[in-house]
Amino acid sequence: MSDKGVAAVERALAILDCFESDQESLPLKTIAQKTGLYKSTILRLCVSLESYGYLRRREDGDFQLGPTLWRLGALYRNRFDVATHIRPVLKRLSEATGESASFYVRDGDARICLMRHNSSQAIRHHLEEGVRLPLNLGAAGHLIQAYSDASDPKTQEIKANSYAISLGERDPNTASIAVPVLGRGDAFMGALVVSGLRTRFDEEARQKAITLALEEARRLSQDIYG
Amino acid sequence: MSDKGVAAVERALAILDCFESDQESLPLKTIAQKTGLYKSTILRLCVSLESYGYLRRREDGDFQLGPTLWRLGALYRNRFDVATHIRPVLKRLSEATGESASFYVRDGDARICLMRHNSSQAIRHHLEEGVRLPLNLGAAGHLIQAYSDASDPKTQEIKANSYAISLGERDPNTASIAVPVLGRGDAFMGALVVSGLRTRFDEEARQKAITLALEEARRLSQDIYG
DNA sequence: TTTTATTGTTCTGTCTGACAGAACATCGTT
DNA sequence: AACGATGTTCTGTCAGACAGAACAATAAAA
Hints:
The structure is a homodimer.
Chain A: H1 7-16, H2 28-35, H3 39-51, E1 55-57, E2 63-65, H4 67-78, H5 82-97, E3 100-107, E4 110-117, E5 132-134, H6 139-148, H7 155-161, E6 164-167, E7 174-182, E8 188-197, H8 203-225
Antiparallel strand pairs in A: 1-2, 3-4, 3-8, 4-5, 6-7, 7-8
Helix pairs in contact in A: 1-3, 5-8, 6-7
Chain A binds a DNA duplex (30 and 30 nucleotides) through α3.
């Protein structure tokens, strides 16, 4: 199951991965179906997850995510200085371009939308924070992939340009641009993205968004990461 | 190491527990010191934690918490309907009493402050969200313990009263009161707490705070948990 | 109410995965 | 250049973890 990791740990984390929406609790049977693990195996793994606060067992037996995830998630999130830096940037980008603005990071073999400022226009590219999307589709996915994997065929071009564009890849009516936010020592921290209705977010608008996003990304790098 | 759980899983979670503040990265040596694990053991466990996004390895080798924790932490947090329910309650309690108001849940053998509205007064009981505190000190700790462990000597009294009080237990100048928020089927969900300067938060003020907090808790139970 | 089906809990033999700890490699300091 | 500190790789041993059966409790159907 594991290649150079520890199989039992990966089983335990696969259990946590079963939880997908808030307000959710899951019975043992559902976890067994989703993970393919035996119930006795799950129960034993859950003893450890509960003891560290990652899961909680309800009185009716259903499992729920536990408070440790909130605490560690808060630690992680604070590293990006959410309240003081990135969110205002997303607001400015959204207002300046009229489209939605987001910040994505890699999450295993997917990307996750950490923060979002949706456009105020009635017709807009709307997504919720926390959503996970594939790496092989969308400007943010290509950019993240390019900065993670030097052997990716698009890496050289994307790094040379310092942006990625996608037209209708995930949704036929959507266009998006993504620029990198770099930290200390040019470490890739995440993707700053503007996305909108393809007919409105045309080439001229995209070029303007790229320019604005690159400027905001440069300022973020200086302000947050030195 | 483990009693009925899985030792490898608990080792992995012990690694995650090493991270205590935001902006933090930890070198291998520090994790080995904090956990008492061998470096080779840590490295193997970290392969699994990285592959699921719980950790990230920086180019200089240091470890950081990864985006999965944010995602799962957001799922957990949303279960409490933060934005729509509990936070306004804390604001009202704080404004009505003039003291700080918080919401605590159990986190293993500690309690964690999930949400907080600090008093606007210059002299106030100030804490940050996310802080972990012991169960054996403070009104919230006693209340949580009473609702978790029927054999606790204080359980009967606290449940009969529907509140706990502490005077100078954790900090000699602080007084606090805690009332339970119950969910479906009277399941204990967390502690609603008001805390402040002991000389100002006197018996009359505490009694008033208890009354207000019980009313808010009852309303929360109806609104959120049916 | 009884019977059947479903879901959760407990147990244990087997074997292989994980660990301890040494050896080695790399980097930083003197 | 030498030494110390930190990170990486390797492997023999055995005890822990799993698979899966049996049992218990609960829910649904007859």
